[in-house]
Amino acid sequence: MKKKGIILCVVIGVALLVGGGAYVYANSQPAPAIAVKTAPLAKATLQNTISATGVIESYNKVKISDTSNEKIEKIYVSVGEWVAKDDWLCQLYNKEEDSYHYVKATTNGTITAMNAVKGNPANGELFTIEDTNDLKVRGKVKEADLNHIHENMPVLVKSDATGDKVFPGNLTKIAPTAIKSEAATTTSAAVTKAEFEVEIDLPPDTTGLKIGMTTRLNIVSEERAEVFCVPFEALVVDSSGQSCIYIAKENPVEQGSYTVESIPVTTGLETDSLIEIAGDQLSDGLAIISQPQAVQPGMAVSMEAGV
Asked: pLDDT tens digits, residue range 8-44?
């Protein structure tokens, strides 16, 4: 009986030793690395823009009129035709004097509008001549955006006809008074929203743009060229209130193993999706952890496949 008791104690002791050793071994092993998404830190140009719309016009626009009421006998030009100063535009016939005289171009340019009709009397504006090589955009901005713009701001000009091509413009004029008011109805009352006219100078090469085209304008109100930036979600604030980014730093001893490291940064210009960061520890190519809220500094991490 004593022998059986001794054997049982030995068995229990061995079991305890094996179980305890397994527990200690399991708890001594490092936690499995968490897979994280990263993106290489890089510099970019950040911009904040104010959207507006506009129409292509010419700086040189001349209307040719005649109020003689004489019959328009002949028309020598058509819309889209280029004319030189003193070219004949139409011939008028004076029945009482049985004489002819001519309406002439007063400047070089392209016929962009024509009200003259053969057989009708000349009474008012007959032709419009514009310089199609000296173009501008006449646009309008909302009242809420007025305090964010000033003359000589760069403007990015696009049109449906020219696709993704961007024409670099320059804001040259802002009207001192509203040109139009739009009534917007709310649940309680009608709210009047004023709009202000602006002019944008275009570069010499405006290939593809035509007078009368509608354009989309982005007035660059703020710009920071070649700065480090990250998405908002990549930025964290530590317990002391310091803005930081987390990076996956490769362990020098164990290749392919990474540890989360916090780098303090200062922030700058913000756009809709990105924020400027600066710091003496930043360099091109740092592996920025895209979702730092899921990890903590010092944690072991691994790169997700394809990152």
From this structure: 555 555 555 555 544 444 454 555 678 899 999 999 9
The residue among 199, 213, 107, 214 whose CA lies nearest residue 152 is 199
Is 58 within 8 Å of 107 (Cβ atoms)? Answer: no
CATH of the domain at 282: 2.40.420.20
Compute the residue count for the chain.
307
The DSSP secondary-structure symbol of 194 reads E
Angle at the Cα of 9 from the Cα atoms of 7 and 13, rounded to 5 degrees: 120
SS3 of residue 189 by DSSP: coil
Q: Are residues 154 and 52 in the same domain?
A: yes
**Does one domain contain both 218 and 114?**
no
Q: Nearest Cα to 301, choosing from 41, 42, 30, 40?
A: 30
CB 261 within 8 A of CB 278: no
What is the span of the domain harbouring residue 291? 34-46+226-303
Q: What is the CA radius of gyration of the chain?
A: 37
Tokens of 280: 């003496």
